[in-house]
Amino acid sequence: MTVRNRGALAAMAAGVAALTVATLVACGSQPAENVGAEEANALATATATPPVTGDVPVATGDLPTGAKVIPPVRLVIPEIDVTATVNAVGINERTNEFEVPPSVDQIGWYRYGPGLEADAGSVVIAGHVDSAKQGKGAFFRLRELDKGDTLTATGRDGKERKYRVVAREEYAKTKIPLDRYFARDGEARLTLITCGGPFDAKARKYRDNIVVTAVPA
């Protein structure tokens, strides 16, 4: 697996071509104010180290030895009317970008990070905000989530796991702290990512990423 540090997550939050999301400018042009940033930061270890290599967007840390990784297969977020299939995704070998499912109503779990059974680290799920051809994506309303909202992730083992939102943040794609959101250490948490901010029609991509952090309820 190879991943460009900045390119991968910018790509990861995805859209029309590869992973740069496209079209409805109004969707992310006036984002709500960030909430819970300090709490989200505290969930990661204070001594987070740089990525293992320049190509891997995760902090140093081993996955549980001998543990059976449980991928999420379904995500339900009642507050924004989301019921979406979750696919295990990796990196597109041709483009070197995080490969979000092409159907905008489906979302992708970063399979090189922790699964739902992990008691530490960030379980990353990314989805499209919208598409010029397909319309609104599963994460079109992700920016509306607020502290205290709840969601349910169902694993391949059939078990439903409840989470509570603690933070919603927006970053320019060039400034998002990848090590924090792809970390394998720190408190167990769920990280949801999509695109937001103004849409650059010429570049056909949004300027920012919206990141929602949730913890086991």
From TrEMBL:
SUPFAM superfamilies: Sortase. The keyword Manganese does not apply. Gene3D superfamilies: Sortase. Residues 1-26 form the signal peptide. Keywords: Hydrolase, Signal. GO terms for molecular function: hydrolase activity. The active site is at H128 (proton donor/acceptor), C195 (acyl-thioester intermediate). This is Class F sortase.
